[in-house]
Structures are given as C-alpha cells and as structure tokens.
UniProtKB/TrEMBL annotation, chain A:
InterPro entries tied to this protein: OMPP1/FadL/TodX (IPR005017)
UniProt subcellular location: Cell outer membrane
Single GO molecular function: long-chain fatty acid transporting porin activity
Organism in which the protein naturally occurs: Rufibacter immobilis
Organism taxonomic ancestry: Bacteria, Pseudomonadati, Bacteroidota, Cytophagia, Cytophagales
Entry keyword annotation includes Acetylation: no
Keyword tRNA processing listed: no
Protein name as catalogued: Long-chain fatty acid transporter permease
Keywords, ordered alphabetically: Cell outer membrane, Membrane, Signal, Transmembrane, Transmembrane beta strand
TrEMBL record, chain B:
Any GO MF annotation of the entry: hydrolase activity, acting on ester bonds
Organism expressing this protein natively: Rufibacter immobilis
Alphabetical list of Gene3D superfamilies matching this protein: SGNH hydrolase
InterPro entries: GDSL, SGNH_hydro_sf
Full protein name: G-D-S-L family lipolytic protein
Top-rank lineage group of the source organism: Bacteria
Length: 414, 447
C-alpha cells in the first residue's frame, strides 16, 4: 500500500517554478499556509506541520491525510541593457508542485507518526531557442522531491518536539544553444539530463505554547546536496571533424546545494476565531558558490564548466491571518517579503532573482466532519532588476517576473 | 509622504493585480529612444567593401542585406530615420560577384574553400573592366544611399576615370555618367545627406598590404597613397558631405593591417602543426640575405592566400640538376615577395596608416563629427572578448568576427561594428539610438 502511494506521487509531475521564491526554493508546502503568506512554523494547522514544524505535529488532535496541489503560472520578461531594446519572455509550462502529508497516533498517545512528500526546491524556466541569452540558457528544469518520515512527541499541552528524516531525490535538465552554426545556419545545442542520487537530511522542530493566546515554533531543515553522477550529455553540432573533436563528452557530474533553513514562527490567538502568525526564515543560500559541471570528455574544448553564483544567506519575512467565520468556513490572508540571495553582478537567466513580494488569500470549507477543502491563491511579484551579470557568465539585462498560483487541498480526518 | 502613497499604491496594485492587469510581467519604463541632435531622415554611407557588405571574398545579396549601413539604417528607423536604399543584386543574381564558401575542414583544421559560381550578376554581354568583369547595373542608381564600393580608396575616389575601372562603381553609374567621367566624390556629395558615415582609406594601404607589399605597375592604386594627396582628397570629401555644417556624421579610421586574420592566420607554428613536422622552417625571399632567402622571422606575415601554395612541389634548377622542392620549405624555393608581408613592409604600412589616421581624426574633430577609432578597436580585441555567451577574436573561422577572406567581416562582425558606431553616435550627439541583438546574425557556417 505504501509503495503504491509513493509510486503514484513519483509519477505525478512534480515541478515548480523559478518565480516562486528566492533562488530555486519553492514556498508552496501547505494550502492553508499558502493562503496566509506561507506562515506556519509557530502554528498548528494540519498535517503539513510535518514540513512546517515537526514539533507541532503531536499537537494535532486528529489523524489525517492531506493531498494538495498548486497550479503555478510564472512569467519572466527580459530586456537587454540600454541602448539595446531586445526583449524576451519565457514560455514556462505550468508547474504543479504537490504536497502529501499523513499522520497517525493513538488518540491519547503523546506520539504522532507521519510522512510527508513535498517539493521544497525546483525551477522550470523556458526561454526558447531564439532569445539573446540562448547561449547561456534555453531551458532549465530542476526538481527536488523530499520524502520525510516523521515522529513528533507531545511533552505537555504546552510543549512538543519532532524530527523527520529527509530522503531526497530529484532531477535536472539543462539545455542551451552552442554558438556554432552548420551549413544551413542551424545553431548547435547541448542538453544535460540526469537524476540526482538519493541523499539524506533532517527536519527538526520544537513547538511551545506558553500561554493560550501565544504559540512559538522553531525549526531547522538541513542542507542536502543534490548530486548527479553520470548524467547524459547530448549534442547537436556541425559535423566537421575538428568541431566534433571539441565535443566528446557523453556524461556529466554536478552538485547543487539545497540549502538549510532556520525558521522562527509565532502565533497569536487574541480570540477563539482569530489567529495571527508571523515567521522569519533564514535560508542558507551561502552554500551555493558555483554551478560546476564536470565532463567525462570535453565540451567546447573544456573538461568542465564553472560559473560563479556566490549566493548569500537570505531572509524571508512572513505575516498571515486566519479568521474562522463559522463552523463551515475559515478565511485567510497574508503576504511575505523574500529577500534575494543573488548578489549584484551574479544574475542569471536560470534564476533571474530579485526581492519577491507575495500576497495571498485562502479559505477552508468544512464539507463534513471528516473532509475539509482548502483553497488558496497567491500572487508573486519580483522587483524589476537590472544586472550586468558580469560575474556569473549570465545574460546582462533587466528581468521582471510574476507568478499566479491557485491551489487546492483535500483533508481527510479520522 | 509621496513615498508612502507610492507604497500604499503599490500594495493596492499588487493585491489587485490579478484582476486588473493581464498575466504578463511589465517593465516600469518604456524603452527610451531619442535622436538627440540628429536628423536621420537621409542617411548616406560612404566607404569601400566593408561598407558595401563585402564578405567571403565577394559581394552578394546576403552580405548587402547585413551590411553595417543597412543595420544602422534599421536602428535609425526607431529614431526618425528615413528609408534607406541599397544597390541590391536581384534574387535571380543573388550571388553577385560570386564568393567562397567553407566546403569542409580537415581533421587537422585546414579549411577547404570552394567558389560559388551560380546565380552571378557578372555580365558577359560587355567587356570586363580593369578591375574585373562588369556587374549588372543597379536600376535605381539615382536613389542609392549605400555608396560602399569594394576596392575604392580615398585616392581613387577623386579619379575621373574610375567608372571605367571599378565594376562596383560602374554598376552604380549611368552610361552617361561614366562617359562624363563622374567621380565618386561628386556622386556622394550630390546625395546631400542629413547624416552620413564615412569609412574610407583602408585601401590606401590595404591594397598594397594584401599584395605582399608589391605595387603593380599597371594599377595606379596599388601602392600606398601619398600623405599630402590623401589629405587634400579626404578633406574635400568630408567637406562636401558636411555641406557647411548642414549634415552630421560619423567618421572611422583605418585598422591596423596586422590585426586581421588575412595576415595572422598562416604562421610557421600553424604550418608545423598542420604538417606534423615541428622542425619545419619557412623561407622567404629577401634580396639582402645571402642566397636571396632567409628563414621567416617574428614580424613577417604570410598572407592567407599563400596557404594554398605552401609545400607545392616546384621544379627548381640547381647546379646539380632540376629537382622538386616544396615551395616555402627550403631556401632554394622560398616564398615570393608577393606572398609575404615582411617586417620592413609592415613598418612602412604601419607608419603610413598612422599618418593617414591622423588626417582622418583631425578632419573628424575639426568638423565636430562623431569619430570611431576602429584602429584602436581592432587592436584592443586581439586577445578576444566574450559577449552573450559567445567568444570573439580575430582568429580565422573560429573567431566569429571575420569572414572567409580574412579581411572582411561576417554578418555578426558587421552587426557588432554597427553597435559600436551607434554607441559613439549616441555619445557624440546625445542620442539614444537602440543597438541591435547581434546574436541574430550569422558568423562563419561550419559544415
């Protein structure tokens, strides 16, 4: 049963988009939280605490399963540096980041056991084969899937701890044009495609509710390295022998850090119906120093490529409110500010990142005692950013990104 | 206070963005375009083969379409520029004068160049001119705005028989104008441009250089142009174009001949690599040396066109009898004077180039015209540069800038030059004429 469940998740198209967060982090891990600025570390909302705070999971009274999905439409526009006027727009496929959480524990037991499957990192961007920056990037698809068995222990009504083991898997596909044209004027092309090795990490959290009207949470999710070994390299290049001699690679190795996160959350419940939450999250993007591909042969005469990224640690500030209108309806709103980890001079078309502002809203409909339906909508607007990209081998210019993300989850409680 | 309103406004817009705007990211500012102090209603390009769009050792339709004047005119059109008429070859004769294409590259990297001889504009109904076979005349010669004439120099621009010499000039003249001995200067000055580009003078040294420093007795334009004569004609030409200050323009000077792959591609080291013989020595003719030949030295340049002759088995008569000796690889069969630009000739040419460039720059300054120091530009990029993920250098074939003749540019090379010109025009005339995405233009096509 369990394996069938995982196979179903594995076959689902799990992807997210670049426009969702700083770097390639995806802030879409629970539909209730998405509806209120993705606040959740200091709150006990539902089974998604497996992601937001394993320490809070044991404070859920009911067992349950939650399945959620977001439909992410992101668009990025590019304009070359003045006096250039060339523009380009991405044609990104709709991303469908997915969340599944389940928890179980005997009613009076202080223990809760859970499992979560979610996509904390990912990026899909498609600039096409014609834009000015195509020798930097045509298309990138990056996915990380975390499977997290979790245990949570309720020390008292006011205190809980929890920990989860992260089992990470994922894939990468990167395509770019090669500036060599054949006799028909067709440009060369390279595609790197690989699956990352299974890697381990952990997610730990503590939850406290010192007084009825106030709750606190603190979590740490460790860094995981997504490592691809012997991924496939495919070329399309002119046939002349001296050219072919410059492109002999068939396999590549690469490692991409999935950075650690420390999140401090606070919840304030002034009345029975009203919850106000705020999170501050530090993302360890400083781990992303360079994007390096090592080849088993050569590509354009080089046995490796290395482009500097030099990210810095960044902070995300979140605020959200939830109001329980009646037994059937709960409404939410919130927003966040996500400071970019990308330093000046390091912008790239893979992640043309800038400070992100997001606003969101959502609601929960209690369809029956056992079934809830969560709906969310979030809008992300990244600041327009102009960069010389002279330190990252990127594509200089001005970038602007927006994203629209409706989402839906079904909760079954038992 | 205003800032606060701005922020509140932004927040409101943000929250309602989904409902009030489309799903598209929008830039805060529109694109800025401005013609500054310029009137671009009539642009005329004055120059030689580089201005005509000559590439791959020929002038043909593709090169004309991607000539730098046509790219400039296209960009000018964003800032009030008018129509721009180029003397195109017809589709049926799109290969114009004919050209060379890259048919293959050997495993050691030696290119095989093949001539394109179909769909030419070469006339067989009339006698050839001293400068080559006649070409189909351009029907609307009176409207021509790209006056790039392959082969023309400052010296020949004032020569009243030039219509009877150069087929590229002849095809832009009516028969009456040829008979009336109309000069190139008369033609271009009569166009009365509001803006012009002037890139002339290369052939006042280059024709001599590409002949290995050998002037041909029958060709009055095959030597280097004397400085005084250059100055007189150049100032007459520039003065005529400026029309007492009515027209503005950009002036460009003469690149260093040793910055182009025609002179830098074939070296003793490259020949050693391609022959696999690292002991090989190349000999060149030198009257001052014992036996009239010496090993090639630093500062001597073998012409790109000499490559085909290297190692050719020639019959050489020695006291011991007639033997076969590979051309250039033995003091008894050295490279000829017209196959090599030796260091004495290089020095002569460099001196003359700087003398002529001083005149060009002085002319530009005194008429307050924009100036593009192409000489400095090509010398600065000798070690290469990178742009939009593409590496560029003056290397033959692989450098992306120079076409298969090693002197003229690829369409992408011309587009880069056009952008460099726009940058200088913008700076000089306080304009914001947009540059073009050079990646949309081809470099050398690799089979």
């Amino acid at each position: 049963m369990k394996s069938k469940f995982l196979a179903f998740l594995g076959s689902a198209l799990l992807s997210a988009s670049i426009a969702t967060a700083g770097g390639y982090q995806v802030n879409l891990q629970g539909q209730k939280q998405i509806g209120m600025g993705h606040v959740g570390t200091g709150l006990v909302l539902d089974q998604s605490s497996i992601f937001f705070n394993p320490g809070a999971l044991a404070h859920l009274r009911q067992n349950g399963i939650q399945l959620g999905v977001s439909a992410l439409t992101s668009k990025i526009a590019y304009r070359s540096l003045s006096p250039g006027i060339s523009e380009a727009r991405t044609d990104n496929p709709m991303g469908t980041p997915f969340q599944a959480y389940a928890s179980y524990g005997a009613e009076e037991s202080p223990w809760r056991f859970g499992i979560g499957v979610y996509t904390p990192y990912g990026s899909t961007v498609n600039w096409g084969n014609y834009w000015q920056g195509r020798f930097g990037l045509n298309e990138l698809s990056l996915q990380a899937i975390y499977i997290q068995p979790t245990v949570s222990y309720r020390i008292s009504d006011r205190f809980g701890v929890g920990a989860g083991l992260i089992i990470s898997t994922g894939s990468v596909n990167l395509q770019r044009s090669i500036p060599l044209q054949n006799a028909f004027g067709e440009e060369g092309h390279i595609e790197l495609d690989g699956k990352s090795k299974t890697a381990l990490g952990f997610n730990v959290g503590v939850y406290a509710r010192p007084i009825d009207k106030l709750s606190l949470g603190l979590t740490y999710r460790s860094k995981v390295d997504a490592t691809v070994e012997a991924g496939d390299v495919t070329f399309r290049i002119p046939g002349a022998a001296p050219v072919a001699a410059q492109f002999t690679a068939t396999e590549f190795d690469a490692t991409l850090p999935l950075p650690d996160n420390i999140t401090l959350g606070i919840g304030f419940m002034p009345t029975e119906r009203l919850t106000i939450g705020a999170d501050i999250q530090r993302v360890g993007w400083g781990a992303y120093k360079a994007l390096r591909f090592d080849f088993n042969g050569i590509v354009g005469g080089q046995d490796h490529t290395e482009a500097q990224r030099n990210y810095k640690d960044s902070y995300i500030y979140r605020l959200g409110v939830q109001y329980k209108v009646n037994e059937m309806l709960t409404v939410r709103a919130g927003g966040y500010l996500d400071k970019t980890p990308v330093r000046s001079g390091y912008l790239t078309p893979e992640t043309p990142d800038a400070d992100s502002r997001s606003v969101s809203g959502g609601l929960t409909l209690a369809l029956s005692e056992k079934i809830d339906l969560d709906l969310s909508f979030s809008y992300i607007n990244k600041k327009e950013r102009t960069d010389l990209s002279d330190k990252s081998s990127g594509v200089p210019g001005t970038y602007k990104a927006v994203a629209y993300i409706p989402g839906l989850a079904v909760n079954y409680k038992f | 206070m205003k800032n606060i309103f701005h922020k509140i406004g932004a927040a409101l817009i943000l929250s309602s963005a989904f409902f009030f705007t489309g799903c598209e990211p929008e830039f805060e500012n529109d694109i800025t375009v401005s013609r500054g102090e310029l009137n671009l209603s009539k642009y005329v390009a004055v120059g030689n083969s580089l201005t005509a769009g000559f590439q791959d050792n020929g002038l043909y339709l593709e090169g004309q379409v991607y000539s730098y004047p046509n790219i400039l005119a296209n960009q000018f059109s964003f800032a009030g520029g008018g129509a721009f008429v180029q003397p195109y070859f017809s589709e049926a004769q799109s290969n114009g004068s004919g050209y060379i294409r890259l048919a293959g590259i050997s495993a050691t990297g030696s290119p095989t160049l093949a001539p394109v001889t179909t769909n030419l504009a070469v006339r067989t109904d009339a006698q050839p001119l001293p400068g080559g076979p006649r070409l189909t005349k351009f029907a609307d010669a009176a409207k021509v705005q790209n006056w790039g004439v392959p082969g023309i120099s400052v010296l020949s621009s004032a020569y009243n028989e030039y219509g009877n010499v150069n087929p590229y000039f002849e095809r832009l003249l009516t028969d009456a104008e040829v008979t009336a001995k109309t000069t190139y200067i008369q033609k271009v000055v009569a166009t009365q441009p509001t803006f012009f580009s002037l890139w002339l003078g290369n052939n006042d040294v280059l024709t001599y250089a590409t002949s290995g420093g050998v002037a041909v007795a029958s060709n009055p334009f095959s030597n280097m142009t004397p400085v005084a004569q250059f100055q007189a004609i150049y100032q007459q030409l520039a003065g005529g174009l400026v029309q007492g200050g009515k027209a503005k323009g950009i002036v460009m000077n003469i690149p260093d001949v040793t910055s182009v792959p025609f002179f830098t591609t074939v070296t003793q080291a490259s020949v050693r690599r391609s022959t696999g013989n690292d002991q090989l020595v190349i000999y060149i003719r030198d009257e001052a040396a014992p036996n009239g030949a010496r090993p090639i030295a630093d500062g001597d340049y073998i012409l790109l066109t000499t490559q085909a002759n290297l190692g050719r088995q020639d019959d050489v008569t020695l006291p011991s009898g007639t033997v076969k000796i590979p051309h250039g690889f033995h003091p008894a069969n050295p490279l000829n004077d017209n196959e090599v630009l030796d260091k004495v000739e290089v020095a002569e040419i460099k001196t003359r180039t700087s003398e002529l460039n001083a005149i060009i720059e002085q002319t530009a300054k005194s008429a307050n015209l924009a100036f593009f120091d192409v000489h400095a530009y090509f010398n600065n990029i000798k070690s290469g540069f990178s742009m939009s993920g593409i590496n560029y250098s003056p290397a033959f074939i692989t450098g992306n800038l120079f076409s298969l003749d090693g002197v003229h540019l690829t369409p992408r090379g011309y587009a880069i030059i056009a952008n460099e010109m726009i940058t200088r025009i913008n700076a000089h005339y306080k304009a914001t004429i947009p540059t073009i995405d050079v990646t949309q233009f081809r470099a050398v096509l690799i089979p």
